[in-house]
Amino acid sequence: MSKKQGVEQATVVAILQFLKLHRIPAWRVNTGATKIGGRFIRFGAVGMSDIIGLWPFVMNGVTMGVFLAIEVKAARGRVSPAQQAFLDQVNAAGGLGFVARSVL
After folding, report:
1. Cα separation, 69 vs 102, whole angstroms
2. Dihedral angle sign, alpha carbons of residues 99, 28, 8, 80
3. Is the pLDDT of residue 1 over 80?
4. Please, are residues 46 and 60 in contact by the beta-carbon 8 Å criterion?
5. Cα–Cα dist 1/52, whole Å
6. What is the pTM of this model?
7. Contact criterion met (CB below 8 Å) for 22 and 53
8. What's the alpha-carbon Rg for the chain, to the nearest Å?
9. Contacts of 87 (CB under 8 A, 6+ apart)
């Protein structure tokens, strides 16, 4: 694991802890591909954010949620075109998608 990957993984864990503390449901998403038994298997969607969740709010006494997508990057990490396209799609559909470089 590279230093950048270690920083990003630690940031993912910190963000998930923060969201849990504030009762915001969120999950780590693993994406990628591998060969299993001679077959190429893809999991997740290309560009999908590291964390997905629901940003809760109350409207007229009813609790609702907005789709949440957080792409975690190290301080100098670059967002790939596929990752930016995923965030743009989430935001265009009324969700909340953004890049986080720390939990603060």
Report:
1. 15
2. negative
3. no
4. no
5. 23
6. 0.88
7. no
8. 15
9. 49, 69, 71, 79, 97, 98, 99
Q: Report the distance separating Cα 94 and Cα 51, nearest Å.
A: 17
DSSP the chain: --HHHHHHHHHHHHHHHHHHHTT--EEE---EEEEETTEEEEES-TT--SEEEEEEEEETTEEEEEEEEEEE--TT----HHHHHHHHHHHHTT-EEEEESS--
Cα–Cα distance measured from residue 4 to residue 26, given in angstroms and rounded to the nearest whole number: 23
64 pLDDT more than 70 = yes
Candidate from 4-8, 35-39, 48-52, 62-66 with smallest mean pLDDT? 4-8
Residue 74: predicted pLDDT: 93
Name the pLDDT band for 4 (thresholds 50, 70, 90): low
Can you tell me the mean pLDDT for 73-101?
A: 97
First vs last Cα of the chain: how many Å apart? 24
